[in-house]
Amino acid sequence: MSIKTKAIALAAAAALALAGCSAPAATTDTAADHSDLKICVYTHGDGGSFWSVAQKGAEAAAADLGVTLDYQGSNNDAAKQASTIDAGVAAGCSGIAASAPDPEAIKTAMLAADAAGIPTVTMNSGSSVFASLGAFTHVGQDEIIAGQQAGLKFNAMGVKHVLCPIQEANNVGLQDRCKGLSQTFKGKTTNFNLDGGLADLTAASAKIKAALQADSSIDAVFALNADIAAKAVLPAATDLGLSLKIGTVDMSPEALDAIEAGTMEFAIDQQQYAQGYMSVVLLYLALTNGNELGGGAPVYSGPGFVTKDNVANVKTLVAAGTR
């Protein structure tokens, strides 16, 4: 096998494995040239520590499979994301992967892609609504399950009151994380409006600090973003001299340092590199082999947990740009 053929075969096998299937022998046509396939990945991402890794995954898959990639983030602007999808349909996208934190905002654009015969998947956010958007599957973690698992972690710590700050008010995935937390955590959970927090982390930290001062029963925070955890929650707790139990979703260098130092308990890893990579692979297989993997259900990439026990290994992979 050539290097490229091996990469294609491995990508196909990985897709089948994630879908819970056994991988048959690869039957890829080694003479085929798929550079004319244009796979478009249009997210709500901001290009930061999380989304830059998802983009690397998509780029790696496109390179391995020999297809053209158009990756664009919309910096949490749902209207911009919708217009990008519309433009992609007009510009000849062969397949489209899109995150769906605000499904209604992109629904018309996604259904237009489906009507045009363009296979689509959702990624990262949208696990409960992908079918209504015309997508054949979703690649990501189930956010309710992620929240439920966080609740179990906090139960084991013996905390009594968890604050759950939501930094994007219209992001249903963030709401689901807090919802899942409340389903398994035995103590009290309080959702906290931190809309726009990522745009001004100093202001976000001040708001978190005020919330902690207003209710002394809060002894833990479930941050839904690693920058919020490390640059807003942790500084607020430090300023107040509080020994909070802090967990977060996703990773950043600062969050991993805090886990290693013992000032943060865990990070939920939804493995965004795999989300980007597998979205491209799934569309590639749909376009070249008629496969629609997932069986009408999401293809889960998480949740996994990063704790003090495995943080050293994960930091090595983060440094390599793949976690």
Structure report:
The protein contains eleven helices and twelve strands. It has helices at residues 3-18, 51-65, 78-90, 103-115, 143-157, 172-184, 201-214, 226-240, 253-261, 272-289, 311-319, and strands spanning 38-43, 68-73, 95-98, 120-123, 138-141, 161-166, 188-193, 220-223, 245-249, 266-269, 299-302, 304-306. Mean pLDDT is 91; it is low at 1-8 and 15-31. The protein starts with a helix and ends with a helix. It has a six-stranded parallel sheet, sandwiched between helices. A six-stranded mixed sheet has the order 7-6-8-9-10-12, sandwiched between helices. The chain folds into two domains: 3-141 and 271-301, Response regulator (Rossmann fold, 3-Layer(aba) Sandwich); 143-269, 3-Layer(aba) Sandwich (Rossmann fold). The chain is elongated, with a radius of gyration of 20 Å.
Mean pLDDT: 91
Query: SSE string, helix = H, strand = E?
Result: HEHEHEHEEHEHEHEHEHEHEEH
Quaternary state of this entry equals single chain
**Count of alpha and pi helical runs:** 11
Residue fraction in strands: 15-25%
The CATH class name of the largest domain reads: Alpha Beta
> Could you say how many structural domains there are in total?
2
Largest sheet descriptor: 6 strands, parallel
Based on helices, strands and strand pairing, what is the structural class?
A: alpha/beta
Which spans have pLDDT < 50 for at least 5 consecutive residues? 1-8, 15-31
Shape: elongated
Q: Superfamily at the CATH H level of the largest domain?
A: Response regulator
Measured distance between first and last alpha carbons: 29 Å
Output the CATH topology of the largest domain.
Rossmann fold
Radius of gyration: 20 Å
Strand order in the largest sheet: 2-1-3-4-5-11
Helix percentage: 40-55%
Number of strands: 12
At CATH level 2, the architecture of the largest domain is: 3-Layer(aba) Sandwich
